[in-house]
Design a protein that fits this description.
The structure is a single chain. The chain is mainly alpha-helical. The chain has two domains: about 35 residues, no CATH class; about 210 residues, MetI-like fold (Orthogonal Bundle). About 75% of the residues lie in helices and about 5% in strands. It is built from 13 helices and three strands. It has a three-stranded antiparallel sheet with strand order 1-2-3, with no helix packed on it. Helix 5 packs parallel to helix 8, helix 10 runs parallel beside helix 11 and helix 11 runs antiparallel to helix 12. The longest helix has about 40 residues. It is globular and about 70 Å long.
Length: about 300
């Protein structure tokens, strides 16, 4: 290894492979002599504080509602509405008690069907992703079920289960289970092999590896699948109410559309969007509690 001595301001430095190793004091002195105001300028520069996320969201929502209110008033009430008219229709439905009753009727099958999809979809995705035989036997059905237009099965489900509560649960279940399965499956495939090899080196059985290694590493994928399933479950709930007994929020939409009452028709739509946003926020909160390390690894710990 060749070291070439050199003199910089009376001090010896080493040149190794064209890289000059200079003591810290030399660099600081040279910088201060060349630019005496650099340090003062750096210290005097104020730190820019980023705008909080909630402020950005509020501003975006205010601009959107304002533009909708301004331009929506020029649209024929049969073809569209605007926020103030929708708020008045919301107040009328809430005062009459129709909105609460419809929301309760819609949430009953939604909660049961969505919960069953989570309880069934996560174990199926873990098994399909972890074991080669299960992937070869069941993977094709999971992929085909996700791509299949499930709305086409609603008439068949009505023939099997009737027009009541059971068919609504079945539609919501089928609409939401496949995103959970596929995301869990993909998460298991993304687990580093080195982690599994560590478990095998300690002679851990497959059940312990699946529970202690694969499941924690797959949690971000599982939570992403649950979040994706929220939207599909809400869509499935409305589809079930359209095709079966016309009740709940879907019943309000159909009755308002038949009466050309566009403002009232928008009320359940807005309620469903708020419901989906709230559930999405709840799932994100649960993810931070269940897997707090994931936000730090991904660098998402911010305002």
């Amino acid at each position: 290894m060749c070291l070439i001595p050199s003199e910089v301001e009376g001090r010896t430095v080493d040149v190794q492979r064209n890289a000059i190793v200079v003591p810290r004091g030399v660099i600081a002195n040279v910088t201060d002599d060349a630019h005496p105001n650099v340090a003062a300028t750096t210290e005097a520069a104020p730190a820019r504080r980023a705008l909080p996320r909630w402020a950005i969201t509020t501003l975006s929502l205010a601009v959107f509602l304002g533009l909708w209110e301004i331009f929506g008033r020029d649209v024929n009430p049969v073809f569209g509405s605007y926020p103030s008219a929708i708020a008045a229709a919301f107040y009328d439905l809430a005062r009459a008690g129709k909105l609460e009753a419809a929301l309760f009727q819609s949430l009953q099958p939604f909660v049961l069907g969505y919960a069953l999809a989570i309880l069934v979809g996560i174990p199926v995705g873990l098994v399909v992703g972890r074991f080669r035989t299960a992937e070869a036997a069941l993977g094709i059905y999971v992929t085909a079920g996700y791509a299949m237009p499930l709305v086409a099965l609603v008439p068949l489900l009505i023939l099997w289960l009737g027009l009541g509560f059971a068919v609504k649960v079945a539609v919501i279940f089928l609409m939401s289970i496949f995103p959970i399965c596929i995301n869990t499956w993909a998460g298991v495939n993304a687990v580093p092999v080195s982690l599994i090899e560590v478990g095998k080196s300690f002679v851990a059985p497959n059940a312990v590896i699946l529970r202690r290694i694969v499941l924690p590493a797959t949690l971000p994928y599982i939570m992403a699948g649950i979040r994706l399933a929220v939207g599909r479950a809400v869509v499935g709930m409305i589809i079930a109410e359209f095709f079966t007994a016309i009740t709940g929020l879907g019943g309000i939409i159909i009755q308002s559309a038949n009466n050309f009452d566009t403002a009232t028709m928008f009320v359940p739509v807005v309620v469903l969007m708020v419901l989906a946003i709230g559930l999405n926020a709840l799932i994100l909160w649960a993810e931070r509690r269940i897997a707090p390390w994931q936000a730090e690894i991904a660098g998402r710990d911010r305002e």
